[in-house]
Write a structure and sequence with these properties.
CATH architecture of the largest domain: 3-Layer(aba) Sandwich
CATH superfamily of the largest domain: Type I PLP-dependent aspartate aminotransferase-like (Major domain)
CATH topology of the largest domain: Aspartate Aminotransferase, domain 2
Mean pLDDT: 96
Number of domains: 2
Structural class: alpha/beta
Number of helices: 9
Largest sheet: 7 strands, mixed
Helix content: 25-40%
């Protein structure tokens, strides 16, 4: 199996670390280069590309079937976007999270100081929702080992208990089809599977929550008419734009380019490609007598083998050590040869 979009990348290693940081496609590098070169000679600052912010909102909304650009806010990090949901809960409210969840999801709730944050095994998350649960927060796909939830099933459970659901799609968006209606809040970093920038994250919010959830620290960019009211008392936007941070316009340009490649290939095709490589890798691991964490995502983790990450790195095979495990992640720049080289290196461990 060849790489799905090999011509878009300059990769010179066996890069199996998209779950940490996605590689920039050539179109993204070119777009950012054009902006910075114009900026450098005084022919236009990055902010003149502000129109690309709404292009980015619309592109992300298309990844969430049923969403529109008006439902999407632009920020810097996932944790700060989650903070608005945390601030909307009453004191003492129970928040349910999976054990071992990536810190950006539970931290805004845990460190508010007056919420009850309860962590349970991922496989029991739905059955642990109870009448006093106010919100469930989880990643669609776990960062450490690639285990996934069923968003629709969890959504049905939270609705039955009148609880909100917040889903982090950072490790899922771009290869897994998603539906806007399957959560109240969606948050997502663009710098992994979406091939964007570290400085840009996104949040989609159900319109019904517009009058209930308020931004924690709204800046000038969250205003209904931000350019006209910079120096006057501002009215916040009525849409999800009220949660906006002033964007990194360079990052937005990069994120738009990355998303355009995913859209051209289609999420379905990307998912088939990435999963097929991961499945080939899992079968090869079994042949070597190794047992990865079970799953069907492009993330494959060998528990307790994190110490081998540096050794593989020295061999030109880029992985990551997470929570004691050795984590591999496969994306559109990878092909079967990458799988085989990784397996060969593990066989020689």
């Amino acid at each position: 199996m060849d790489a799905l979009a090999g011509g878009e990348f300059r990769v010179e290693s066996v890069y199996l670390n998209t779950a940490s940081y996605g590689l920039p496609p050539e179109r993204g590098l070119a777009a950012v280069r054009e902006v910075t070169e114009r900026w450098a000679v005084g022919a236009g600052a990055p902010s003149v590309h502000d129109d690309q912010v709404d292009v980015l909102r619309a592109a992300f909304a298309r990844l969430l079937a049923g969403a529109t650009g008006a439902d999407v806010a632009v920020g810097h990090g996932v944790g700060s976007l989650v903070g608005s949901a945390a601030a909307a809960l009453p004191p003492g409210a129970e928040v349910l999270v999976p054990e071992g969840e990536f810190a950006s999801v539970p931290n805004p709730f845990r460190y508010r100081g007056d919420l009850s944050v309860r962590a349970v095994p991922l496989e029991r998350l739905a059955e642990e929702v109870r009448p006093r649960t106010a919100l469930v927060a989880t990643s669609v796909v776990q960062s450490a080992d690639g285990r996934a939830i069923d968003p629709a099933a969890l959504r049905a459970t939270t609705r039955a208990h009148n609880a909100w659901l917040l889903l982090d799609a950072t490790q899922a968006a771009g290869w897994l089809p998603l539906r806007f209606d399957d959560a109240d809040f969606w948050v997502c970093g663009t710098f992994k599977w979406l091939l964007g920038a570290r400085s840009v994250s996104l949040m989609a919010v159900q319109p019904a929550l517009a009058d209930t959830v308020r931004p924690v620290t709204p800046g000038w960019y969250a205003a209904a008419d931000k350019w006209a009211e910079m120096y006057a008392p501002q009215q916040l936007a009525r849409t999800a734009r009220r949660f906006d941070d002033t964007p990194d316009w360079l990052g937005v340009v990069a994120a738009v380019a990355g998303l355009s490649l995913i859209e051209e290939l289609t999420v379905e095709a990307v998912g088939r490609h990435d999963r097929a490589l991961a499945d080939r890798f899992r079968r090869g691991l079994a042949d070597l007598g190794l047992t990865p964490v079970p799953g069907d995502s492009p993330i494959v983790t060998l528990p307790g083998a994190g110490e081998f990450a540096r050794r593989l790195d020295d061999s030109g095979i880029i992985t990551s050590a997470r929570d004691g495990g050795l984590r591999f992640s496969f994306h559109i720049h990878n092909g079967s040869d990458d799988v085989d080289r990784a397996l060969k290196a593990l066989a020689q461990r």
